[in-house]
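> example.struct
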């Protein structure tokens, strides 16, 4: 098996081959390193690494295999870590100039869980500053480009992770999600991003502990692989008030029958400013899928208050986390973070109280909707990928957006409700760029959402339109360094 073939293995298949001694962890690590060295210059996904340490860890993993030891679920699998989580000895910058020289001396809890399951740390992946905004750009490491068109955005904030997966640099990656940061880049880059129910993957360092808007989660090339990583990331943690006191998820997803489930679909949840190309692509996919699904109707929960709820609660979160930094280092805080701090200062206690009350009604509306619907399908993102020089879309269908995050409405609609959702690759749109289908299920039904995603992807694989080809790796190998592009580090 050649290096290129090894790098393109799914995590599930690579783990199976490792257990059977048909694939060496060293061989897999070398293949991933070779892929990073071949194409990372063109996309800038991996921004910090220690490949000597990775090879040492791979050799140690191989020894355990040969000794017949009990192996963890991620044994020997390289995992890319979003630059929001601490990895001992590698920089954690959060995409912020304030932390450009920050090198932690220990792993945080998420990374420790990956290592304890046998995972090998490949390196850190690029993010927007403090994961604010869905275009992966910062002044520390520059921009990360879409592997299907390096002039276009890979979205974000887990953009580096999505690109690393799409180009075969790693079989698994971590991400986090507030307004779609797992799902948006997955959609733009043709991979899988899963936002779990709050508390399933604990956030022991989340500063706004009782406001579970943001959560870590898995990214992968298949739903099975996302489920494998989720089984490791999902663990009790008393430092997160939303984490269960006990319990775990199986690495194997349950069996589901698409024809036995009741589906709904929506182009825009009734409020999101969705581009016409996205609407037409969804309609085409629904037509192609309808024969494989159970009852399918157009509809969605009442989301009329989504923009107001998200605007207030997001701003409050950024105000609580970043106001002091903005006051101490105003020249090192970027425009998206500053916009949220400014917006947060404009809201009164009355505004916050009303937003929290609206969120309660919003959650119950979603709960009522899912009493008669098993799965809701919609686009993952409101637009087709645009040039990365655009900090955020100011117009959609010739109408102005309300803020730098308003175009993320299809993602934050589920965030507000706290319902699990996955973005899965579903072919290309009419512009030839990846299209992500969002699969939403009931709260705490995380495993079934991924199981439905798995069955849908199996349907896509046999359809020439819904199947997504890989990026052109040869073109990326030949491409000039992205760092030479005008505006590479501009915001």
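> example.seq
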């Amino acid at each position: 098996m050649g290096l290129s073939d090894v790098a393109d293995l799914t995590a599930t298949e690579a783990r199976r081959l490792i257990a059977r001694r048909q694939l060496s962890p060293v061989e897999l690590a070398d293949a991933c390193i070779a892929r990073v060295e071949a194409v990372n210059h063109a996309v800038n996904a991996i921004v910090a690494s220690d490949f000597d340490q990775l090879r040492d860890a791979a050799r140690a993993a191989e020894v355990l295999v040969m000794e017949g030891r009990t192996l963890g679920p991620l044994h020997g699998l390289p995992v890319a870590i979003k630059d929001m989580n601490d990895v001992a000895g590698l920089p954690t910058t959060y995409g912020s100039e304030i932390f450009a020289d920050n090198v932690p001396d220990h792993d945080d809890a998420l990374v420790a869980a990956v290592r304890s399951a046998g995972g090998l740390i490949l390196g850190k992946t690029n993010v927007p500053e403090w994961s604010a905004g869905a275009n992966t750009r910062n002044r520390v490491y520059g921009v990360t480009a879409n592997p299907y068109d390096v002039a276009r955005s890979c979205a974000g904030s887990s953009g580096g992770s999505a690109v690393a997966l799409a180009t075969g640099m790693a079989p698994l990656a971590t991400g986090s999600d507030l307004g779609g940061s797992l799902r948006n880049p997955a959609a733009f880059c043709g991979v899988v991003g899963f936002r779990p129910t709050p508390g399933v993957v604990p956030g022991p360092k989340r500063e706004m502990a009782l406001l579970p808007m943001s959560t870590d989660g898995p990214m992968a090339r298949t739903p099975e692989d996302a489920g494998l990583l989720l089984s490791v990331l999902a663990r009790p943690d008393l430092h997160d008030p939303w984490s269960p006191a006990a319990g775990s998820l199986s690495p194997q997803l349950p069996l589901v029958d698409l024809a036995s489930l009741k589906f709904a679909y929506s182009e825009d949840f009734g409020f999101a400013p969705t581009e016409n190309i996205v609407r037409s692509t969804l309609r085409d996919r629904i037509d192609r899928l309808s024969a494989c699904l159970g009852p399918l109707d157009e509809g969605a929960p009442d989301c009329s208050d989504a923009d107001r709820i998200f605007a207030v609660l997001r701003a409050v979160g950024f105000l609580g986390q970043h106001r002091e930094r903005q006051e101490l280092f105003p020249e090192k805080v970027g425009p998206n973070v500053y916009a949220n701090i400014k917006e947060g200062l404009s809201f009164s206690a009355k505004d916050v109280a009303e937003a929290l009350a609206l969120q309660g009604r919003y959650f119950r509306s979603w709960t009522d909707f899912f009493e008669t619907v098993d799965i809701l399908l919609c686009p993952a993102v409101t637009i087709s990928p645009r040039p990365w020089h655009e900090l955020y879309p100011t117009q959609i269908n010739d109408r102005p957006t309300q803020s730098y995050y308003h175009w993320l409405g299809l993602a934050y609609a589920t965030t507000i409700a706290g319902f699990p959702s996955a973005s899965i690759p579903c072919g290309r749109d009419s512009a030839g760029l990846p299209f992500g289908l969002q699969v939403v299920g009931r709260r705490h039904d995380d495993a079934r959402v991924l199981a439905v995603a798995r069955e849908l992807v199996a349907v896509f694989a046999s359809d020439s339109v819904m199947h997504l080809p890989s990026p052109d790796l040869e073109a990326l190998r030949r491409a000039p360094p992205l760092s030479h592009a005008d505006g590479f580090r501009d915001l």
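> remarks
The radius of gyration is 21 Å.
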